[in-house]
């Protein structure tokens, strides 16, 4: 069983971050438990925007969060 870092998640175990990542055609919303970019930070270039969610917003669905916090404008030529 994998151990969780207590500094990255709260006791409720809900994702703490709302993240917009670069998708194949457009930005895509995700919820992350931690801002851990993995080995070599390969995910860092995929992250377009992120925000730490207050406790009362952590249970909201992705669609609700996406309406509340719209995606950033992305240059499609890259």
Tell me what portion of residues adopts beta-strand conformation: 15-25%
Q: How is the largest sheet built, in terms of strand order?
A: 2-1-3
- The total of beta strands comes to 3
- Number of helices in the DSSP assignment: 1
Question: Which descriptors would you attach to this protein?
Answer:
single chain; 78 residues; mainly beta; three-stranded antiparallel β-sheet; 1 helix; 3 strands; disordered N terminus
In short:
The protein is mainly beta and 78 residues long.
Describe the structure.
With 78 residues, the chain is mostly beta strands. The protein has a domain at 17-68. The chain contains one helix and three strands, in the order βββα. The chain has one helix at 62-68, and strands at 17-22, 27-32, 47-52. A three-stranded antiparallel β-sheet has the order 2-1-3, with helices on one face. The longest helix is centred in the C-terminal third of the chain and has 7 residues, at 62-68. Mean pLDDT is 81; it is low at 1-9.
């Amino acid at each position: 069983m994998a151990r969780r870092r207590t500094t990255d998640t709260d006791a409720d175990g809900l994702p703490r971050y709302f993240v917009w990542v670069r998708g194949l055609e457009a930005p895509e919303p995700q919820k992350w438990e931690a801002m851990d970019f993995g080995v070599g930070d390969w995910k860092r270039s995929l992250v377009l925007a992120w925000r730490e969610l207050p406790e009362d917003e952590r249970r909201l669905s992705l669609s609700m969060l996406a309406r509340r916090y719209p995606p950033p404008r992305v240059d499609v030529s890259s």
